[in-house]
Amino acid sequence: MPACAADAQAADAQAADAQTASTKPAVAEAMVVIDNFSFSPQELTVPPGTTVTWVNHDDIPHTVTEENKAFRSKALDTDDKFSFTFNTPGDFSYFCSLHPHMTGKITVKPGAS
């Protein structure tokens, strides 16, 4: 195959790859840190499809428990993580079942970033 034909095929393949990448939805992720008996950020707004991961940086166990039982973690020891993917719009208030004064809220809203 002539060099210019091979170059044209390579350029076409790169253009197709770029188009495919731009049409794939981005996977949204967010993190909430548990430290000093609090969730940070305490409130978070995300688009549907976002996976939120909580990570415990405290020296004692904590849980992440949604008020209406949409999700509930096991007891998270230091550096343990818990993730949940929010597909449904709405407000999700949660707390630590071991320390109920610890509260947070995830708001799932189309168009949020």
Brief descriptors of the model:
113 residues; alpha/beta; four-stranded mixed beta sheet; 1 helix; 8 strands; globular
Q: What do these coordinates show?
A:
There is one protein chain. The chain has 113 residues and is of the alpha/beta class. The chain is globular and about 35 Å long.
Low-confidence spans: pLDDT under 50, at least 5 residues?
15-24
- SS element count, helices: 1
Write the element-wise H/E pattern from the N-terminal end onward.
HEEEEEEEE
Main beta-sheet annotation? 4 strands, mixed
Tell me what portion of residues adopts beta-strand conformation.
35-45%
Net shape: globular
Level of helix content? 10-25%
- The radius of gyration over CA amounts to 21 Å
Class by helix and strand content?
alpha/beta
- DSSP strand tally: 8
- Terminal Cα span: 48 Å
Output mean pLDDT: 85
Strand order of the largest sheet: 2-1-4-6
List the helices and strands and how they pair.
Layout: H1 3-23, E1 29-35, E2 38-40, E3 43-46, E4 50-56, E5 65-66, E6 81-86, E7 90-95, E8 103-108
Outline:
By secondary structure, the protein is α/β, with parallel strands linked by helices. It is 19% helix and 36% strand.
